[in-house]
Amino acid sequence: MHILIVGGASDIGSDMVELLLERGHMLTFLDNISSGYRDVVDPAAEFIHGDLSDRNFLNSLLSKSFDSVLHFASSIDVNESASQPDKYYRNNLINSLNLLDAIACNGGGRLIFSSTAAIFRNPLKMPIDEHHPCSPINPYGRSKLMLEQALGDYEKAHGIQNICLRYFNAADAAFDGSLGERHQPETHLIPLVLKTAVGYREYINIFGDDYDTPDGTRVRDYVHVMDIREAHLLALERLVRCGESSAYNLGSGKGFSVREIITTAEEVTGRKVPFVISPRRAGDPAKLVADVHKSHAELDWRPQYAELSKIISDAWRWEVQASSR
After folding, report:
1. Distances from the Cα of 112 to the Cα of 115, 135, 155, 211, 269, angstroms
2. I need a labelling partner for 203 at 20 to 30 A (CA). Which of 104, 118, 156, 300 fits?
3. CATH, domain range 2-171+224-250
4. How many CA atoms lie within 13 A of 256 on its CB side?
5. DSSP E strand boundaries for 120-245
6. What totals of helices (H) and strands (E) does the chain contain, helices first?
7. Got the DSSP string for 41-109?
8. Domain 189-220+253-291+304-323 adopts which CATH fold?
9. Is 219 helix (H, G, I), strand (E, B) or coil?
10. Between the CA of residue 66 and those of 35, 106, 274, what are the distances in Å?
11. Which residue out of 37, 88, 89, 140 is catalytically annotated?
């Protein structure tokens, strides 16, 4: 297939470029390089520098014969979304609607959308399945949910078949250390813990140690980027085969606490990770774990790299290589 990857210079987008090239697909990737990195993407993929805010540009680009679109382009900092909601509704919703409009104007098509478990929050039951009520508590989650809802309307009106993949906590590092998380600023727990281990940070904050969990710290579901990218390929193949729009959770189906992350990081790195207990953050639930039965049954997707030591070892390999550059 000829596939357009939107946000192909992002952490997960660049991993997806690599996998699809390995599987023999022809790729074009679009990115404005505002938060991604051109140097991490395989040069065999055609690169187009552009922005989703430019409707004329998108209409021209989508007039080419792409078989499918994979959409990774979004702003992802939950805390920033609270202080800059305009950025998140513009980047994640309005600009994405521009993309949908361009697809619709050129006859419809297939779209795989990178969504998030932040559309749920404050769970009523655990683990969280795809039918759990959606009640996002921040503009980031709301912007993603709004686009999921828009996709349902665009399918009915314009025939855009789509699958939404709801990531729980993506742990992004390739096996060989060639790719990893490069957020500015970094907000994800595992890279923050490893930056503390490598000496870039003095300590890690644990926001609350009095939750109703085995060790009092928050529990989250982590999924390896190599499993995430495989899920995208399986979702695309299902959409091509069945033409049936749907949404799927991507997680390991089990949770790890903040203290478990720190302890495992110390075991993997052989270094101490100092931490400070800080007050709880508003709206942080005690536990978020995915129910992945639907992904297993319909996509035939099962995480192959769900062990916490594997996730952290690969992230540590990237962190060590990045710190030596």
Report:
1. 9, 22, 13, 36, 36
2. 118
3. 3.40.50.720
4. 24
5. 161-167, 169-171, 204-207, 219-220, 222-224
6. 11, 14
7. S-TTSEEEE--TT-HHHHHHHHTS--SEEEE------HHHHHH-HHHHIIIIIIHHHHHHHHHHHTT--
8. UDP-galactose 4-epimerase; domain 1 (3.90.25)
9. strand
10. 25, 10, 49
11. 140
Q: Give pLDDT tens digits for 5-17.
A: 999 888 788 889 8
Does residue 140 have an active-site annotation?
Answer: yes
Q: What is the value of pTM for the model shown?
A: 0.92
Instruction: Please give the Cα distance from 103 to 7 (Å, whole number).
Output: 16
Instruction: Give yes or no for a contact between 235 and 112, defined as CB atoms under 8 angstroms apart.
Output: yes
pLDDT tens for each residue of 182-228 = 556 677 899 999 999 999 999 999 999 999 999 999 999 999 999 99
Query: Do the bridges between strand 169-171 and strand 161-167 make them parallel or antiparallel, or are there none, so unpaired?
Result: unpaired
* Whole-angstrom distance, CA of residue 19 vs CA of residue 25: 9
**Residue 209 phi, psi dihedral angles, 5° rounding:** -130, 25
Query: Tokens in use for 309?
Result: 């030591």
Tokens of 151: 């996709």
